[in-house]
Amino acid sequence: MLWMQFVRRRHVLREEAGGNSGGGGGAPSGSGYSAEYVKELREEAKSWRLKYESATKAADDAAKAAAKASADLEAANKAHGDALTAAKAEAKKEGDAKLVRAKLESAGLKAGLVDMDALAFADLSGIKIDDAGKLTGDVEAIDALKKAKPYLFGGGTGTASGAPAPKPGTGTVDVRALDASSAEYTKSRADFLARAASL
Predict the structure, then answer these.
(1) How far apart are the first and last CA of the chain?
(2) Burial class of residue 117 in the structure, from the number of CB atoms within 10 Å of its CB (0-12 exposed, 13-18 middle, 19+ buried)
(3) Quick one: DSSP state of residue 163?
(4) Cα distance between residue 185 and residue 197, in whole Å
(5) What is the largest distance, in Å, between two alpha-carbon atoms of the chain?
(6) pTM for the predicted model, two decimal places
(7) Residue 12 CB partners (closer than 8 Å, separation 6+)
(8) What are the two backbone dihedrals, phi and then psi, of residue 153, each rounded to the nearest 5 degrees?
(9) Rounded to an integer, what distance in angstroms lies between the CA atom of residue 151 and that of residue 26?
């Protein structure tokens, strides 16, 4: 479009110069163009060249900006993908840990485990979770714990120290069952202190 305007302008100037050339118009004989006409053409060509260079530079700058924006978008997408993958892995790890804990507690209850905090002693190396989320090895881990530390399970033969547990009704009173009046408390305290002094 700009080039066509330049050609039209040049044609108009040429016609004007042609009309004046017969009268001597200040141009040297045989040249056909006046110095003014040539100067105008050069000025116009220069302005078109500058416009072209400016448009080319703007297009190059826009292409560079678009390439940078594309690279930034790709880097942001990669960072987002990495963060999403890490979040999924962390969520799976936490979910697996909760599943293992729940299955161990269930197997421990069935085996008679008295305190669920004792699950910390269980060997978890044999526990596996397949792709479907099915857990195996939990019962084996509890069986191994029961074999290694039987005192952690109910129905054992004694206390943690190996001494037999006291039998109910042999001089010990469950203080939780007492409705302690002042007189009962005083009597129980005196009995306790007497036994302690005899030791």
Answers:
(1) 117
(2) exposed
(3) P
(4) 18
(5) 150
(6) 0.44
(7) none
(8) -110, 145
(9) 124
Strand, coil or helix: 97: helix
Report residue 32 as tokens: 């056909």
Residue range 82-110, pLDDT digits in tens: 999 999 999 988 988 888 888 888 888 88
Q: Which amino acid is residue 110, in one-letter code?
A: K
DSSP label at residue 31: T
pLDDT tens-digit map of 163-185? 555 555 555 656 556 565 677 77
Query: Tokens standing for 2?
Result: 């700009």
Determine how many CB atoms are found less than 10 A away from the CB of residue 99.
Answer: 16
**Using a CB cutoff of 8 Å and minimum separation of 24, what contacts does 2-8 make?**
2/48, 2/51, 2/52, 3/48, 6/44, 6/45, 6/48
In the chain, the amino acid numbered 31 is: S
Burial class (CB in 10 A: 0-12, 13-18, 19+), 100: buried
Amino acid at 161: S
* Coil, strand or helix at 22: coil
Which is it for the CA torsion 177, 182, 184, 189, positive or negative? positive
Q: Which residue has the tokens 């060997």?
A: 123
Which DSSP state fits 173? -
Q: What's the DSSP call for residue 153?
A: B
The reported pLDDT for the residue numbered 158 is 44
